[in-house]
Structures are given as C-alpha cells and as structure tokens.
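Hi R.,

Here's the chain you asked about this morning:
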Amino acid sequence: MVMAQSLFIELRHRNPEAVIDVLAPAWSRPLLARMPQVRQAIDLPLAHREVGLGKRFRLGRTLAERHYDQAILLPNSFKSALVPLFAGIPLRTGWRGEKRGWVLNDCRDLDKQTLPLMVQRFVALGLPADSALPVDLPDPLPVPQLQVNREQARQVCEQFALPPGQRLLMLCPGAEFGDAKRWPCEHYAEVAKEHINKGWHVVLMGSAKDQAVTGEIAALTGNEACHDLAGKTSLDQAIDLLSQATAVVSNDSGLMHIAAALHRPLVAVYGSTSADFTPPLSDQVAILNTDIDCRPCFQRECPLQHKRCLTELEPSRVIKALERLSASIIVGDMQPCVS
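And the predicted structure, written out as tokens:
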C-alpha cells in the first residue's frame, strides 16, 4: 500500500484537481489517512482471496452513485476488476492478467523487463495508454512520504513511556511472509545491546504475531532500555512511533516500507527475497544481504533448512551500516523522540 502513494502523487501532479478515493482493505486506512493526495479510503469488506461476488456487486452499485471517471487497478487479479465494472466506471485501467481483458477497457500489456520495479508498474498505470515506457516515466519517480502530526507523535511516545530526548533505535524483526525473511533473534539482540551500551533506547515493533520473536530478543538483550511494543500498538500508533526513530533496522516487511516513507535512516535486511522488485523507497536506506548461490529463493521457509542467507549476515554489518547512515545524515534529521 505504501508504494501506491507514488501513483497518487503522479496523478495529482498531472491533474492537481484530481479527486482520488482508494478502495482497499480496512487495515490500510491508517496509512491512507497519512497520504494528502487521498480524499477518502473506502473499505473493501472482503477477506484475503475471498471472491465474494455478491458483496462486490453490491459495493459496485453503491459506488456507482459517485460517478467516478476512472478506476486504476493495482492488483492483477480478475476479482479486483469486478467492483469497477459493477460501478459502471467508464474507464477501467489495469495490467492484463487472469483473462480479465474483457472486464477492463484500458487493458495494458506489462513488459516486466522494461518495468522491473513494482513502483514503476504502479506509476505507469497513471500515464496515458500510449506512453512510451520506461521513457515517459517521471525521473525521478515520486517517493512516498507519509504525514505525521508532531503533537500526536509526542503523545504516543508518552503513552508508551519512551523517554524524551533519547536516541531511539527501532527494530522490526517480524515478517508476515515467513521465517525465511526473519533475521535471527540473536543478531537483533547484538545490535540492540551495542546501541544500549552507547546510550540509546531500543524499541521492538511488530504485531501480536511477532510477540514470540520480540520476546526472545528482549530476553537476550536483558536491559530495561529495550522496550517490547509488539502487539501493543495500533498501526496508526506504529506510524507515529516510527516517525520518531533515530534509526530503524527491519526485515523486508510492511514496517520497512513505512519507515522508508517516513524517511527515517533505515537498514533493510533481506533474506529469501530481493530488493530488485520492491525496495524501500528512500535515499536514507542501506540494503544488506548475503552473496550465496541459493538466494533469492522467494520461499517462505528455507528449502535447504539452513537459512544461511540470514544467519551469515553478521550483526557487525548492520552496526556499521547504521554508523554510516548516522554519519551521512544531517543532525536535524536524526532527532530523538520529541519532548
């Protein structure tokens, strides 16, 4: 969802009067609320992979009353094209896929070699159908930038008892995709201890599903300056907290993309996946991985049962990357938690 903001920015650049509403799962509402290009987030009342033909038809007929001019479909699935069809939206734009060509009337052929990045594919759908790609893509591409209310961020820091005026290292050790994306707990703990010894506070971020992982890291760190907030924050609060990070270390995850869109100094750790398709979009990022023959495999679990792509990525590399980021960024950008 974060990368979709690049499309929204381009649409508004081409037409400053454009009104953009976004149909998306309810969980994404806090993200969309931080994007000034979006007028309204509309909840998609369907579970992941649910076809829900009746629900889509009823939603489409409700949206028909709004008389939208165009629908841009970011998912490539057939079912994602049904609501715009039922809504009678006259121009329905998307990439060809799942035999949905007859549902879209602006159906485009994707050349994956020409547009290797997901963000390029998103932005390209906002260009005229006869655009020459990749030549006509904006250069540089629009970069996501989530808005933050400073007072709200201060209140969230206070709510979770984060000491004002302290440097905060935020660690995001979870990965919804699977274990083959998770850098080892003991490695995260080494990074945490190194920074606590330098006077930093460490904040462990994640959902309730990540609590076993963050709990292990907290136990290995063994210091009250390590704050385990996994499962204790809403997405809205997590965005505010990440906005106050002095630096962030994250696996390839949604929180990684949020940290990048908040333009916090970020070390992104890649295991089974690759930054060649969905990199964090920021100029304050260090992307780390290992150079072994079997990666990237894009598997949820290591098929060889060794996870060398993660275990062999030493904590010292992350610590050095954090030092380089800190040295290259102006002091004002490295602000501690607001007081």
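The radius of gyration is 21 Å.

Let me know if you need anything else.
M.
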